[in-house]
Structures are given as structure tokens and as C-alpha cells.
Amino acid sequence: PQAERTFHFARLTGALPPLAARPGIREAGVGDVPRIHALRQEILEFGPSMPMTELHALVAGGENRIFYLENGLQRVEAAATLTSRSLYGAVVASVMPHPASRGKGYATALTHYASERVLRAGGTPCLFYDNPEAWRIYQRLGYRVTGAWRWYYL
């Protein structure tokens, strides 16, 4: 393998804490894909962005649910994805606040919202992370590490 990356696996182990205020979170449709894709390209930690055609197919096919917040200028400020949905739960993934919007609570609000959707469906929310800043958010929401995954890139 040319490179490897270790991710921590965490799951929500109890009830979510209440949030004081939640901004207007929306679920993305296919018409929102270009703006979600533009946000992904701004997030350096994500590396090369997936092609817009792939993101479009995931949204159009219903495989993923993307939730987002935008500013008054129609720019997406933050987004989060629910993926790998099953009867048992779903993975909260690609939590991505725009670099200029970090520290405003958007990642917390979106993670909370996506986790709440999984809980209401009777499942367990889980996630992978390798970012210590993101972990602080997840931990405050009640996520606990239950394992690690090592990914190899060829």
C-alpha cells in the first residue's frame, strides 16, 4: 500500500443533548448538488473532491441524504451526509463546514440533526473520524469510540 489512514469508529451511546437553537437545515435535492460540490472543493481535509456526477447519482438514487445550511447569498455554509443506512442505523459522514464558517455551530447542528433522524427511525447513529476538532463536537453530542478502522490507499 502507498498510504494508510486510521479512522476512529464511534457510535451514539445515549440520548442526544438538546440544542439551544437550530438554524434552518434543509435536505439537498439534485438541484442542490452543484452548491454541495462547490463546498466539498473548499474543504482541504477531504482531499480531491468526488466528481459532481458521482455526487449527483448518490443524491438522485436516494443512497445518501445530504443536509445543509446556507447563508442569505445562496452559498452552502455547511453540510453533512447520512449514508450506509440500514434497519440498524446509519453513518453520519462528510460533516463539512465551510472554512470561513467554522466555529459557528453549524457542524454541531448538522451532526445533531442527522443523528436525530437516525434515532427517530429506530437506528443507531455512528461515524468515522480522524479529526480531533471534529471529535470534540461528536463527543459533546454523546458519541463514544468503539473501534478503529485502517484504510489503505493504493
Beta-strand fraction estimate: 35-45%
| Structural class by helix and strand composition | alpha+beta
| Shape assignment | globular
Number of separate helices: 4
Please provide the ordered H/E string of secondary-structure elements. Answer: EEHHEEEHEHE
Distance between the termini: 5 Å
Q: From the alpha carbons, calculate the radius of gyration and give it in angstroms.
A: 15 Å
Helix content: 25-40%
Biggest sheet strand order reads 2-3-4-5-6-1-7
Spans with pLDDT under 50 lasting ≥5 residues? none
Mean pLDDT: 88
Tell me how many strands there are.
7
Major beta sheet summary = 7 strands, mixed
Produce the secondary structure layout.
Layout: E1 3-12, E2 26-27, H1 33-42, H2 52-60, E3 65-70, E4 76-86, E5 89-97, H3 106-120, E6 124-129, H4 132-140, E7 143-153
Parallel strand pairs: 5-6
Antiparallel strand pairs: 1-6, 1-7, 2-3, 3-4, 4-5
In short:
This protein is an alpha+beta fold and 154 residues long. It has four helices and seven strands; from the N terminus they run E-E-H-H-E-E-E-H-E-H-E.
